[in-house]
Write a structure and sequence with these properties.
single chain; mainly alpha; elongated
């Protein structure tokens, strides 16, 4: 990382994504017993969260990384809310009750999403880099 600017928010993203990935992996077997699609969803979430958080942390000036990770987190938050209000289609049952671990995980993801907004806005406020010039030496 070439600059200390933005390290706080990107570290929040990394930690929150790692935490959420761990929870998704830990809950994957029990959700796979419930539904293969649900288990696969937990596996995909776990597989995407950590590398996305890592890319945001190692490339803090990448607006694309911030936006992509924000979309992933927003989707995970939306799916959780849907699973608790209307139920997920194809799972075979209605809404699930809210639970402490789920709420804690979603709180971490929401914190990461807010940090990503900060990262994205910080990146947009920076002037674009100057083009590199070739030396004739």
């Amino acid at each position: 990382m070439s600059s200390r600017r933005g390290v706080g928010p990107t570290l929040v993203v990394l930690i929150a994504c790692a935490f959420s990935a761990g929870i998704h992996f830990a809950l994957m077997p029990s959700h796979a017993d419930e539904s293969a699609a649900l288990g696969a969803g937990f596996a995909v979430a776990g597989l995407l969260l950590l590398p996305f958080g890592l890319v945001v942390f190692t490339q803090p000036h990448s607006s694309a990384a911030a936006l992509t990770t924000a979309v992933l987190l927003a989707l995970l938050l939306a799916v959780y809310l849907l699973s608790r209000t209307a139920g997920l289609p194809g799972v075979g049952h209605g809404p699930e009750p809210f639970d402490a671990l789920g709420l804690l995980t979603k709180l971490a993801e929401l914190g990461a999403l807010l940090a990503l907004i900060h990262v994205y806005l910080d990146n947009r406020s920076r002037p674009p880099p100057l083009p590199k010039t070739r030396s004739n030496a």
